[in-house]
Amino acid sequence: MATQVDTKIAEAQIHHLMDDWARAARDKDIDGIMACYTPDIVSFDMIPPLQYVGAEAYRKDWQMGFEMCQEAGDFETRDETLAVGADVAFCHRLNRMSGTDEEGNAFDCWVRWTQCFKKVHGKWLIAHEHISVPLDMQTNQALTDLKP
Fold first, then answer.
1. Is the sign of the CA dihedral 37, 43, 48, 49 positive or negative?
2. What does each of the 148 residues of the chain score in pLDDT, given as a tens digit?
3. Cα–chain-centroid distance for residue 36?
4. I need a labelling partner for 131 at 20 to 30 A (CA). Which of 33, 85, 110, 145 fits?
5. Surface-to-core class of residue 97, CB atoms within 10 Å of its CB (0-12 exposed, 13-18 middle, 19+ buried)
6. Which residues contact 13 (CB under 8 A, 6 or more apart)?
7. How is the chain split into domains, by residue range?
8. CB proximity list for 147: less than 8 A, separation 6 or greater
9. What values do phi and psi take at 106, rounded to 5?
10. Which residues does residue 105 pair with via DSSP β-bridges, in sequence order?
């Protein structure tokens, strides 16, 4: 059973991992991003298909995403909730993604972001991600302009 001290240490380690991930994403550092994931990562990203299974498939998704952006984007987070167990944890929050696409158009949208972590050989890694935006059920359109 995890003690309160163990939980605080794990929370700090996971926050460090999330900081490393955000820094790598801002820098368009694909190797830095992929170092944060388990080899068997499963991701439900906003970019099709419905899911990416495995690090190699998810690496291709990140590469495609970076190719769609002229420059490194920015990430802002808020309303984070982190729950930690002995060897698994999860976090949900709102993430703001902004930048410039390949045609020079600015984008800025808030998404719902959930990450599930697994402790592998003493190190916390991201084992699952789910990124989404709400859907207007009447128009079948993604609502990318909502703000918290």
1. positive
2. 568 879 999 999 999 999 999 999 989 999 999 999 999 999 999 989 999 999 999 999 999 988 888 776 788 899 999 999 999 999 999 999 888 888 888 889 999 999 999 999 999 999 999 999 999 999 999 999 999 9
3. 10
4. 85
5. buried
6. 124
7. 4-142
8. 110
9. -75, 145
10. none
Q: How far is CA 73 from the centre of its chain?
A: 13
* Cβ–Cβ under 8 Å, residues 84 and 14: yes
Instruction: Please tell me the pTM assigned to this model.
Output: 0.91
Cα 95 from Cα 92, distance rounded (Å)? 9
Q: Which residues of 37-75 are buried (b: 16+ CB within 10 A; e: fewer)?
A: bbeebbbebeeeeeebeebeebbebbeebbeeeeeebeb
Pair of tokens at residue 16:
């460090």
Cα–Cα distance between 107 and 125 in angstroms, integer? Answer: 29
Tokens for 94, please give them: 């709102």
